[in-house]
Design goal:
The chain has 3 helices and 19 strands. It is mainly β and 333 residues long.
Length: 333
């Protein structure tokens, strides 16, 4: 039921009743008071809009910040949606709109912007910051995730808020090895520290029962220096179908991903395989997805390589002007 409209009473004949975006008006809570035996879950919720790696709303670029929020009026923020599921035990669960960005529906923009920005991940599967709200809530993996990036030339002395998703008991934030405060974590709630920007290193340390269990580090990088390839597999089947998903990173001379890099990367391939797609998660990109090149977007792009029907060795090379290149070898068996 979109926005929990119960027109005509059709919900009364269902075994399980799904509500969309009940959070703002708590419609599923109100309905539960009237229908105590109704089995309820959230079929579509959240609709949080954000562009991976962006921290300023920009109507010219078609990007939405992960921290300076523009949010549709019908949905909550990442983590807050799950907090309702925990708070009201009669709610059976939640489908977040959406797991991935997708082509079309570029809310709050229009053409020439071409992709939605509702995803926990972008169209390439690169996590956005909100992803870590769900990782914190849905897994027991000790998690601390801080953002934004720390590359802000020209903003020295300006105020920048540092945000953190965590499932630890407490988090202490350090700027250039100096503590700027420890905060107790509240489940499904984002922590925020207001800082005065200075380049260097941000480090968040997560504690449970007083013991340091995990940390996250964000550093100011130097200029792009190299392309790095990382494949999800090293071996493919010689069946003409199997695919390797290869992450392409733009890194500085200290092997750190440059979070603002947009270098054009060109690919070449030898052996029993072919390039079947590229992407970068940019919701404003009009680059062809079938190509041997792709611009990085905020440090990353992606390439898909598919095997042929012959055994052998696929060698994929990546290059970019003035940067050190890289290659990855895939064994086809």
């Amino acid at each position: 039921m979109n926005h929990a409209r119960n027109d005509g009473g059709y919900a009364d004949v269902l075994d399980v009743v799904g509500y969309n975006y009940g959070d703002k008006g708590l419609a599923y809570v109100k309905d539960h008071e009237n229908y105590q035996n109704r089995v309820i879950f959230c079929t579509e919720g959240t609709s949080f809009v954000s562009t991976r790696g962006e921290y300023e709303n920009n109507w010219g670029k078609g990007t939405c910040s992960n921290s300076i929020i523009w949010q549709p009026g019908w949905g909550p923020y990442p983590g807050e949606d799950w907090a309702d599921i925990v708070k009201y035990p009669y709610l059976g669960g939640l489908f977040v709109w959406t797991g991935f960005d997708y082509r079309g529906e570029p809310t709050p923009f229009q053409w020439p912007f071409v992709s939605s920005q509702f995803g926990i991940m972008d169209v390439c599967g690169f996590p956005k910051d909100g992803y870590y709200a769900y990782k914190s809530a849905w897994t027991d993996i000790p998690t601390v995730h801080i953002f934004p990036h720390w590359n802000w030339p020209g903003k020295e002395g300006d105020s920048i808020k540092v945000h953190c998703y965590t499932n630890c008991d407490e988090v202490e934030l350090f700027l250039n090895n100096k503590s700027v405060g420890k905060q107790k974590a509240i489940p499904n709630t984002k922590l925020i520290w207001p800082l005065i920007y200075q380049p260097g290193k941000l480090e968040a340390r997560g504690y449970k029962a007083g013991k340091l269990i995990t940390k996250d580090i964000v550093e100011t990088t130097t200029a792009p220096a190299q392309v790095a390839l990382n494949s999800d597999v090293t071996t493919l089947k010689a069946d003409g179908c199997d695919v390797a998903v290869i992450r392409v990173s733009i890194k500085d001379s200290k092997d750190r991903v440059v979070p603002t890099a947009d270098n054009l990367v060109t690919f070449s391939i030898d052996g029993p395989g072919k390039i079947i797609g590229t992407g970068n998660g940019n919701p404003s990109s009009h680059e062809p997805d079938k190509a041997n090149q792709r611009m990085a977007f905020n440090g990353y792009c992606l390439i898909l390589v598919q095997s042929d029907n012959e055994i052998g060795e696929i060698r994929l090379r990546a290059s970019s002007d003035s940067l050190k290149g890289d290659e990855v070898i895939l064994n086809v068996k």
